Amino acid sequence: MTANFAASRVAFDLPEGVIYLDGNSLGPLPRAAVARVQRTLREEWGDMLITAWNRAGWMEMPRRLGDRIGRLIGAGPGTVVLGDTLSIKVYQALASALEARPDRRVILSDTGNFPSDLYMAEGLVRTLGRGYALRTVAPEAVEAAITPEVAVLMLTEVDYRTGRRHDMARLTAKAHAVGALTVWDLAHSAGALPVDLAGTGTDFAVGCTYKYLNAGPGGPAFIYIAPRHADLVRPALSGWLGHEAPFAFDLDYRPGAGIERMRVGTPPVVQMTMLEAALDIWDEVDLDDLRARSIELSELFIAEVEKQAPQVTIASPRDPQIRGSQVSLKFEHGYAAMQALIARGVIGDFRAPDLIRFGFTPLYTTDADVAGAVRILGDVMKTRAWDDPAYRRRSAVT
Ligand SMILES: *Cc1c(COP(=O)(O)O)cnc(C)c1O
Prior knowledge:
Helix content is 39%, strand content 13%. By secondary structure, the chain is of the alpha/beta class.
């Protein structure tokens, strides 16, 4: 028996007639967020004006909410802080990790990583010069490529395209055995499955809050540093709010205590208010229950797709233990097929060249959603409803 998620489902404002299977890309609106944001605008910004930084606790939000995210990713209090976007947090973690291994020059990543993570690494390598290099190998080849040359192993645990999951504990142990540090991206892990940062001994981790955590578009990212490193690393983006004493306005930079040094500038208060409303829901969730339910949903989806939509291929791992909380299907006309699904109220998304993705988010996804989505998918395939010029016109966001 797995936990009943009926209570969390009603905490979300899901549009009538829509089956939403894209919470892996943008989580839905928590009902409470609307009133919460209004209060922040009206009673805090409106009435308190600048005094709200103190009186409404705005300045501590990045740390306070970081602690609440910490519970979801196996990180202790005071090890996680929020701010900026995930790409920025990747850069910060990677720069600090490289600086902590000054005798080495290689960043190891894989071709399944999200492009922005690789782009940020490329940019950092260019800035550093001095022989730094980004080496990318196929996901299956990562373990063998962890050699004593590697300064930092930088991976995303769950592949955004296929949902394939790396073994974080095993790869972290291998990296440590050769003297490398690890940066794990939890974009498709936080709120999708249990993560044990402290237990796996990972050095740095980053992730975003607008996917499974439901903080809304543009929600701030988070960064974790293992306590053994937190007071030693030097931030590459040394902004005033990561300073030891921002309001001393000293002319020289001194890093703040521990994870505080990864703050950069003014926190996005309204976005963090939305995250706070979402975390009220998360505070009640047992991650093992969530994972069990996520596997039930994705297994049901796969079984039904095999029965009802033989035209598509399952592109995600069949073993749920090495799959995140999404299932991807391969179909030559994937983009058009997804547009046809969206027109019929089933929202997933498309990743080039030919994958359609469906996220399973137990907080609000039900068996009936899965059954309904596959029935419509089967119909779109059987009737070739995707074969319509209107569905081939690409939007900017896919
Ligand atoms: C979603 C995602 C990003 C997006 O980065 P932003 O800076 O928040 O736009 C980066 N990396 C990974 C692995 C992602 O899944």
